[in-house]
Design the sequence.
């Protein structure tokens, strides 16, 4: 199944996409008028940098800005009971890197897939919460899924692999464009190209 782009990314001008990013993140960046989700990318940067292979309490706080919560039992599994297993899986995924550079299909035996399935084996964690947690640890590699984004991108059945293929089309033209749009919107590089795609898709989907 092929992913489809939202209308702001199918036209030749970047104006509509830039406007959606500025509305979401604020203008200037993170001003009082931004959406709560804007803080997901910048929450507790020192914790994020120091714990790339371990889920922490700050990760659970960060995803609340994206309108989801992890219940107490699930939090204990993430942070205590199965913490070592999740560290092992995050280490197997490897360091953060751009999804566009993944040359091989992300099949069911790849570490990123195994990590998602392990997260989803925890009661109360489904695909949306799992991808938000994963994007907190690997923001350049893991696209966030929710029902709005899935509808806009036509990725309800499969999400990550169709997006990888879309990004790699025409020698990575979409990835490059997303970085250009990010720059035009005045956003920092800590906001990944994938997150730019997520936000534009979600903002368009919420208003249509």
Sequence:
């Amino acid at each position: 199944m092929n992913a489809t782009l939202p209308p702001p990314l199918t036209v030749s001008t970047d104006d509509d996409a830039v406007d959606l990013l500025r509305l979401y993140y604020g203008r200037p960046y993170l001003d009082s008028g931004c959406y709560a989700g804007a803080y997901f990318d910048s929450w507790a940067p020192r914790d994020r940098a120091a714990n790339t292979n371990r889920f922490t309490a700050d990760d659970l706080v960060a995803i609340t800005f994206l309108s989801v919560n992890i219940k107490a039992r699930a939090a204990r599994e993430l942070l205590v009971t199965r913490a070592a297993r999740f560290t092992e899986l995050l280490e197997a995924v490897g360091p953060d890197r751009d999804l566009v550079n993944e040359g091989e299909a992300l099949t069911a035996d790849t570490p990123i897939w195994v990590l998602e399935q392990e997260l989803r084996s925890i009661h109360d964690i489904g695909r949306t919460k799992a991808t938000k947690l994963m994007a907190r640890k690997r923001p350049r590699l893991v696209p966030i899924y929710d029902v709005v984004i899935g509808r806009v991108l036509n990725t309800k059945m499969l999400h990550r692999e169709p997006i990888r293929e879309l990004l790699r089309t025409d020698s990575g033209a979409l990835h490059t464009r997303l970085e250009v749009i990010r720059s035009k919107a005045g956003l920092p590089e800590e906001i990944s190209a994938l997150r730019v795609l997520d936000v534009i898709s979600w903002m368009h989907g919420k208003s249509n």
User: Anything to note?
Assistant: The mean pLDDT is 97.
